Amino acid sequence: MYCMLFLRLIFLNLRGFMENVTMRPIIKVLEDKCINCHRCIMVCPVKMCNNGSGAIVDHHSDLCIGCGECITVCSHGARIGIDDFDEFMADLKKGVKIVVIVAPAAAASFEGKYLELNGLLKSLGAKAVFDVSFGAELTVKSYLDYMKKKNPLTVISQPCPTLVSFIEMYRPELIPYLAPADSPMMHMMKAIKKYYPQYSDCKIAAISPCYSKRREFAACGIGDYNVTFNSIQNWMDSKKDTIANYKAEDYDNPPAERAVLFSSPGGLMRTVQRYDKDINSKTRKIEGSPEVYHYMAYLSEAIRKSNGPVFKLIDCLNCAMGCNGGPGTGNRGKHLDDVEYLIEQRQMETRKKYQPKNIFQKLFARNKLEKLLDKYWEDGLYSRSYIDRSAIFKEMVIDPSEQQIQAVFTRMHKTSSSDILNCGACGYRNCEQMAVAIINGLNKMENCRHYVEIEKTLRNEESVKQKLNTVYDHTLGEMNKNLGGISSLSLNIGETANHVLSSSTAIEQMVENTRSIHQTLEQNARTVLLLNESSSEGKNRLHRIAELIDDVSAQSDALIEACSVIGDIAEQTSILGMNAAIEAAHAGEAVGKGFSVVASEIRKLADNSNKQAAEIAGSLKNIKALIDSSKESSGQAEQQFDTMVSLINTVKNEELHINNAMEVHSSGGNQVIQSLNEINSLILKVKEESASLLSSSETIIEDIRGLKAM
């Protein structure tokens, strides 16, 4: 067993040595999503870990401090953080013994259900779950012990591995001021190894808000997995699971007091306040990029000038929201109060556990916490040393001379102070940084806005020059063609003038003929008007005749009816005569003879009357037929008169239209004659101008030849 532990220790030290030489990758570039917008360079505190010289912005792990700002700012998802979630889950499934430590930011990342997170981890197979907040309590004890014994000029806090990497690589002169003590996570891991022998054969996984914690594990030679809150949340989302579905499980280590605040900005300072009420006035609290890096970049200069540090403790964090808003959380972009509220709530709960319930407990409450911390603290156990990694930067990035920078500026068309725009469009803070990147092959001139604009102008000028030469050649050819055309034009203009004069004479004759036609049409119009009046009069008279025929027809009908009555009377008279003859016969010859003669005459008279009435009726019927025929002919004649009147009106209207058209035609002809006269005048002027144009064209050709020669 001891042999295995010894080999493991050798392996961890060897791994730590190798990872001290090259930095573990914690950010991955997805090339298919990168659009080369340079926003990642813009937010990067150290710039030179990005390579924008190609089609994408690549990333160099050995120069990266792991701040995660590029992950947050990339709206295309081209950069992602790397943690050990997959390896952690695979080993749990294999039955590998693993204990877990959980960062205090879990309360903010899982909506206050940090104990349910413990239940989830244990359900996955974790043997135990420890609260890093207790490691933070031990960290404060280590800090205070160091400050009391060594009384340093200042102490730069080091719970943030990103800031530690920045100082080691880019500001190694600040290493002496870094607290020579482990971070809360390292305190907790070492405490497990020292004070929990039952887990000595277990690997340790950290559930954290930060991708760069993995580098701290490598540097210290302890810690096997770094699993971010985001990975756990994404895993639950993929399974449509929530943290609320798990049982709340307490931690397997003693509870912390106010050190649960460590994940919030100023959490270290507020925990130290338990021992030093005036620590606020002695502490520089600073967090967030770029402020914290600007402060660190010039801190050594301030120390050298004896202008700083003003504060004994520098409580610093990379993220503006502290670890609660680390790149491995889903809290970036949320309101600060909403996030810190959950941490503050937990702090009030944990402090209640150590609050005295009576006067006696009040006297010994602090001793209770101190005794507990003393139990898990040992002098030298939690010491931390740092490595000057600046050689990596110096080896990979050339520090160019002023001449080299000026040479790049010249190639970039930055030849005067007004060309040094420092616009930041390239992602760098100023043009000099961009020049340094170009010299080191980490960027290219085409990513400089000023260079692109000047190059575009130069290309446009060259293009314009080429186009002008083409235009010169084309213009000369066309002008030579135009010379012949202008000469022909002068000749054609003279001929055109003659044709215009001939046309003018013909049009004048046409106008005169139009006037004659107009007069004839006016005479025809008067004749048509008289014909129209006569036709209307004839129509009226014919209508009167038709009315008279109607009257005669009516009288004829009356006569026919009278003849019918006469016939009836004659027939009755004949019957009466017959009856009289019969009566005369009855009366005898002596009496009835004379009466018989009278009756006979009456019958003859009746027969004659009936015969004449029949003849008269027949004649009247013939007359009636003739009258009806005359009436029909009269109606047809009246209709023909109507048609004739309509046609006369049509002829009158057509002649009126023709007459109007002829008036317009006559007026137009006069205008044409006037226009032709004006055209003739203009043609004479054009003839004069064409001669002048011919002379000018010859002069222009000579000028163009001279311009091209320039």
Automatic annotation (TrEMBL):
<dbReference type="GO" id="GO:0005886">
    <property type="term" value="C:plasma membrane"/>
</dbReference>
<dbReference type="InterPro" id="IPR004090">
    <property type="entry name" value="Chemotax_Me-accpt_rcpt"/>
</dbReference>
<dbReference type="InterPro" id="IPR051310">
    <property type="entry name" value="MCP_chemotaxis"/>
</dbReference>
<keyword id="KW-0807">Transducer</keyword>
<dbReference type="InterPro" id="IPR004108">
    <property type="entry name" value="Fe_hydrogenase_lsu_C"/>
</dbReference>
<dbReference type="InterPro" id="IPR009016">
    <property type="entry name" value="Fe_hydrogenase"/>
</dbReference>
<protein>
    <submittedName>
        <fullName>HydA2</fullName>
    </submittedName>
</protein>
<dbReference type="GO" id="GO:0004888">
    <property type="term" value="F:transmembrane signaling receptor activity"/>
</dbReference>
<dbReference type="InterPro" id="IPR004089">
    <property type="entry name" value="MCPsignal_dom"/>
</dbReference>
<feature type="domain" description="4Fe-4S">
    <location>
        <begin position="404"/>
        <end position="466"/>
    </location>
</feature>
<dbReference type="GO" id="GO:0007165">
    <property type="term" value="P:signal transduction"/>
</dbReference>
<dbReference type="Pfam" id="PF02906">
    <property type="entry name" value="Fe_hyd_lg_C"/>
</dbReference>
<feature type="domain" description="4Fe-4S ferredoxin-type">
    <location>
        <begin position="25"/>
        <end position="54"/>
    </location>
</feature>
<comment type="similarity">
    <text>Belongs to the methyl-accepting chemotaxis (MCP) protein family.</text>
</comment>
<keyword id="KW-0408">Iron</keyword>
<dbReference type="Pfam" id="PF04060">
    <property type="entry name" value="FeS"/>
</dbReference>
<dbReference type="InterPro" id="IPR007202">
    <property type="entry name" value="4Fe-4S_dom"/>
</dbReference>
<dbReference type="GO" id="GO:0051539">
    <property type="term" value="F:4 iron, 4 sulfur cluster binding"/>
</dbReference>
<dbReference type="GO" id="GO:0006935">
    <property type="term" value="P:chemotaxis"/>
</dbReference>
<dbReference type="Pfam" id="PF00037">
    <property type="entry name" value="Fer4"/>
</dbReference>
<dbReference type="InterPro" id="IPR017900">
    <property type="entry name" value="4Fe4S_Fe_S_CS"/>
</dbReference>
<dbReference type="Pfam" id="PF00015">
    <property type="entry name" value="MCPsignal"/>
</dbReference>
<dbReference type="GO" id="GO:0046872">
    <property type="term" value="F:metal ion binding"/>
</dbReference>
<keyword id="KW-0145">Chemotaxis</keyword>
<keyword id="KW-0411">Iron-sulfur</keyword>
<keyword id="KW-0004">4Fe-4S</keyword>
<keyword id="KW-0479">Metal-binding</keyword>
<feature type="domain" description="Methyl-accepting transducer">
    <location>
        <begin position="485"/>
        <end position="705"/>
    </location>
</feature>
<dbReference type="InterPro" id="IPR017896">
    <property type="entry name" value="4Fe4S_Fe-S-bd"/>
</dbReference>
<feature type="domain" description="4Fe-4S ferredoxin-type">
    <location>
        <begin position="55"/>
        <end position="84"/>
    </location>
</feature>
